[in-house]
């Protein structure tokens, strides 16, 4: 037995439907639920970046060095990325409703305490608990979304919009953090996750009524695989994150990366032999799913690169204050919004893979424009075009890839799909930034290094688009 849900209306609405035959109330409830789930998903990503701009203020308040600030930032992302696969399997085993409730309460409670943390280590613990709650919540959101749209075609259309939700959350976090920190305090950034978590919990619990649903799929729990995957991904991410603070020759960097990779290879080996694998090998061998996950990883990497490098460039080389730096990314957010609204129509007309390929090529154009950056680059003529074009293309990639990655997902694997997709989204910026910053470090001049990183990323996008074109005939799903 597995908890499902039905979408309910109030008595007045139900009476109106019986007398008039109108379906407005149920439709409105579905829209309310989709919007609620989408806002929660966006907030999970918002919480990653919400302390990026305020980090200097946090460092000043607690007297921190740069490496300690990195741990504040990574304290959320490490458990989030490391526990997503386990969160997905727990969702499929115990139901999306139960895991959603547990995850959101944990996430919201930690966020509330984050407003009042007295010291550095308490803040790190709060961020870790937030990330753990997020790792439970994200796969559960996918499971609830899949149940909300049981028809595959309806679910595909929903995913076309859902694909861009996360990156919009990241953009909102980057924009609002500068404003809130300037006018209030970095502590007030935690109020947004608190409100979203508990209001979202009330809406979902009220509108989704639990039912008992028969299912033939009751997956076991691969504890050994969960331990290997979580520790492998976390250690790998930890090493990459600290590669920005220490040389690759430092044991904390290469040791963490190598041990993480070995643990993950061991995990993949174990998954071939266990009865109920955490990540069934067949799940990622699907060509459409593999391309979708790769697209999400690449798009997330590009977005992480642009926010990181351009925020550094504007503040350190152009002398912009944090508030102005946040405002500089308004075109970035507009590019995401415009194309996210158009993505669903484009996917329905042309195919998810076509939209993904076009998005990769558009993103590459934006990256090549940014590759021309120099110390005298003017914002309006030198940065603005790339700041709009790259996210516009990335929004198409996210939407098309989300449809590909979740096409024909059965209900009993929806949590797994959510865990895998969010893992790709989390690892993209970590892996991409570490690799491209290593490329940038080959240049003597820092800004020349930034340009080389943007140009290299653009070339990777073009190669990825060409590879996707070669795979086109193998993708049969009419996404």
From TrEMBL:
One Gene Ontology cellular component: plasma membrane
Gene3D superfamilies referenced in this protein's UniProt entry, alphabetically: MFS general substrate transporter like domains, Multidrug resistance protein D
Molecular function as annotated in GO: transmembrane transporter activity
Topology in membrane: Multi-pass membrane protein
Keywords (A to Z) from UniProt: Cell membrane, Membrane, Transmembrane, Transmembrane helix, Transport
Principal place of residence: membrane
Chain ranges passing through the membrane: 32-57, 69-87, 99-116, 128-149, 161-180, 186-208, 220-242, 248-270, 291-314, 320-338, 350-373, 388-411, 423-444, 450-472
Pfam families: MFS_1
InterPro entries in the record: MFS, MFS_dom, MFS_trans_sf
PANTHER family cross-referenced by the UniProt entry: BLR6921 PROTEIN, MAJOR FACILITATOR SUPERFAMILY MULTIDRUG TRANSPORTER MFSC
Protein's recorded name: Putative transport protein
Protein source organism: Yersinia ruckeri
């Amino acid at each position: 037995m597995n908890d499902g849900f039905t979408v309910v209306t109030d008595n007045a609405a139900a009476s109106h439907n019986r007398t008039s035959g109108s379906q407005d109330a149920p439709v409105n409830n579905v829209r309310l639920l989709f919007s609620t789930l989408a806002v929660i998903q966006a907030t999970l990503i918002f919480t990653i970046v919400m302390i990026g701009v305020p980090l200097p203020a946090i460092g000043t308040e607690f007297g921190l060095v740069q490496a300690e600030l990195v741990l504040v930032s990574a304290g959320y992302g490490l458990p989030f990325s490391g526990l997503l696969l386990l969160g997905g399997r727990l969702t499929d085993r115990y139901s999306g409703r139960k895991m959603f409730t547990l995850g959101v309460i944990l996430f919201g409670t930690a966020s509330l305490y984050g407003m009042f943390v007295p010291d550095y280590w308490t803040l790190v613990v709060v961020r870790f608990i937030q990330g753990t709650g997020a790792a439970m919540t994200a796969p559960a959101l996918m499971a609830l979304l899949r149940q909300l749209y049981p028809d595959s075609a309806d679910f595909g259309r929903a995913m076309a919009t859902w694909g861009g939700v996360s990156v919009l959350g990241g953009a909102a976090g980057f924009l609002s953090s500068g404003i809130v920190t300037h006018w209030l305090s970095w502590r007030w950034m935690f109020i947004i996750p608190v409100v979203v978590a508990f209001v979202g919990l009330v809406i979902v619990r009220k509108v989704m009524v639990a039912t008992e649903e028969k299912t033939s799929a009751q997956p076991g729990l691969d504890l050994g695989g969960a331990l290997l995957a979580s520790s492998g991904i976390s250690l790998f991410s930890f090493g990459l994150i600290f590669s920005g603070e220490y040389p690759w020759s430092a044991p904390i960097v290469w040791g963490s990366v190598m041990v993480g990779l070995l643990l993950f290879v061991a995990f993949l080996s174990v998954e071939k032999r266990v009865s109920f694998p955490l990540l069934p090998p067949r799940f990622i061998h699907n060509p459409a799913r593999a391309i979708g996950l790769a697209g999400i990883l690449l798009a997330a990497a590009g977005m992480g690169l642009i926010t990181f490098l351009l925020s550094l460039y504007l503040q350190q080389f152009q002398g912009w204050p944090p508030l102005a730096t946040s405002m500089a990314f308004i075109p970035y957010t507009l590019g995401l919004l415009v194309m996210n609204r158009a993505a669903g129509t484009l996917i329905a007309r042309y195919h998810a893979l076509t939209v993904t390929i076009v998005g990769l090529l558009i993103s590459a154009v934006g990256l090549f424009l940014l590759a021309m950056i120099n110390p005298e680059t003017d914002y309006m003529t030198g940065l603005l075009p790339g700041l709009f074009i790259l996210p516009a293309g990335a929004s198409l990639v996210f939407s098309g890839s989300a449809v590909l990655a979740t096409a024909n997902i059965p209900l009993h694997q929806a949590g797994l799909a959510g865990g895998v997709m969010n893992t790709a989204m989390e690892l993209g910026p970590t892996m991409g930034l570490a690799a491209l910053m290593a490329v940038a470090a080959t240049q003597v001049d820092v800004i020349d290094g930034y340009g080389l990183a943007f140009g290299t990323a653009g070339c990777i996008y073009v190669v990825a688009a060409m590879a996707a074109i070669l795979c086109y005939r193998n993708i049969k799903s009419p996404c």
